[in-house]
Write a structure and sequence with these properties.
It contains 4 helices and 2 strands. The chain is mostly helical and about 100 residues long. The longest helix is centred in the middle third of the chain and has 17 residues.
Length: about 100
């Protein structure tokens, strides 16, 4: 199943987020290693967007819920923690 936001296809969760937001995800989440000045500018831009679009958070949550419902496979990710491997005793070594 393919998911489109406008005319653009969302192939991954990251694509969906950027297309749904209409802005790069980094604007909202930041980037590793950004300076205090860069963070302040990014947060200022985000505040301006929210001030111009007061329904933005609610609209985004509704869109996200709809896409998750219609395309749950977009969000299938490998588990962050792998199960511990069971150690087996080697010949001549106690387990």
């Amino acid at each position: 199943m393919r998911t489109y936001i406008g005319r653009q296809q969302a192939i991954s969760a990251e694509d969906f987020a950027e297309l749904a937001l209409g802005t790069p995800v980094e604007l909202w989440l930041g980037v590793e290693g950004e300076s205090d000045e860069e963070r302040a500018a990014r947060e200022d831009a985000a505040r301006d967007i929210l001030a111009d679009n007061p329904n933005f958070p609610d609209d985004l949550v509704r869109m996200a819920a709809q896409v998750i419902e219609e395309s749950p496979d977009l969000f299938d990710v490998a588990p962050l923690v792998r199960p511990a491997r069971r150690r087996t005793a080697r010949k001549g070594v106690a387990a």
